[in-house]
Amino acid sequence: MTGCSAPQPPRRASVAPDQYPQTPPSQTPPPEYPPPEYPVAPAPPSRTPQGLDAVIDISAHTAVSDFRLVRASNIHAVIHKASEGDFYADPECAARRPQAEAAGLLWGAYHFGKGDSSGAEQAAFFLDSSRPGPGTLLALDFEPNEGDPSNSMTLEQAEAFVQAVASATGRLPLIYVHPTWANGGARITPGSILARCGLWVVDYHESPAIPRAWAKSGWRLWQYASDEYAGRRAHGRNRIVQGLDRCDRNLFNGGVAALHQFWNAAA
Predict the structure, then answer these.
(1) What predicted TM-score, i.e. pTM, was given to this entire model?
(2) I want to staple 131 with a disulfide (CB 3.0 to 4.6 A). Which of 20, 117, 165, 211 is the partner?
């Protein structure tokens, strides 16, 4: 996943404000650590490096023709970009959600973190843009900003983002991160609130490296291939995803029943 190539003007979420009600973020600074009722992400049911090849992530850059064909490709879940920073709302996210859910797909939304606004402000914008419902999985894309490295989200901003999302929704988002960034650039420690979130690791090797902060819990989702085009098999996989022109491919650490259970628990 990547950010936008150029800044865009402020954009309001396109979903009616009362369609997916939520508790607004607290106006007081979030506590240093989340209250006890926010659970630590449970250990995955299996540490198999294979997993279930049934989750894709997309954005407005993906042309979708029919989510029913996506589901017929044995894909069970879609995670869509919802926002970036505190200014850009993905213009396709809101309209695609009911289409994907009507096709029988689980729905998730992710935010691309940036460094030019606070974590709390970005969390508020993300929730306003994604309008999460009871079954919406939430995620933070925490990676260097390739277009402007100096504008990358910091660890402190990421922690504030997670705390704000937890305060507003009562649940922790997944953290999408590369092991090199997690261990080196961001230096996430096991004591960080990020380590309490489920790990969505990005690693295009034969098996994923686990960042030190998640050494005990392991990965929940593994993005093993990026920007795979229609009609082309992802590396080491036989399945072709129909109904769209490109997507990122992810494995879930478990089976179909465990995926639905995890999604509902995370949402």
Answers:
(1) 0.81
(2) 20
Q: Which residues are CB-neighbours of 25 under 8 A, at least 6 positions away? A: 120, 123, 124, 127, 164, 167, 168
Phi, psi torsion values for 174, nearest 5 degrees: -70, 155
Token pair in block for residue 119 = 């974590």
- What is the pLDDT tens value at each position of the chain, 267 positions in all? 755 544 444 444 443 333 334 444 444 444 443 444 444 444 444 434 579 999 999 999 999 999 999 999 999 999 999 999 999 999 999 999 999 999 999 999 999 999 999 999 999 999 999 999 989 999 999 999 998 999 999 999 999 999 999 999 999 999 999 999 999 999 999 999 999 999 999 999 888 999 999 999 999 999 999 876 655 555 555 568 999 999 999 999 999 999 999 998 875
Tokens of 99: 């289409």
Question: 123-156: string of b/e by CB count within 10 Å (b at 16+)?
Answer: bbbbbbbbbbeeebbbbbbbbbbeeeeeebbebe
Q: Is 221 helix (H, G, I), strand (E, B) or coil?
A: strand
Please state, as a whole number, how many other Cβ atoms lie within 10 Å of the Cβ of residue 117.
17
Superfamily of domain 52-266: Glycosidases (3.20.20.80)
Whose CA is closest to 197, among 126, 132, 262? 262
- Give the number of residues written for the chain: 267
Task: Report domain extents, the chain.
Answer: 52-266
Round to the nearest angstrom and report the end-to-end CA distance of the chain. Answer: 21
Indicate the SS3 state at residue 54: strand
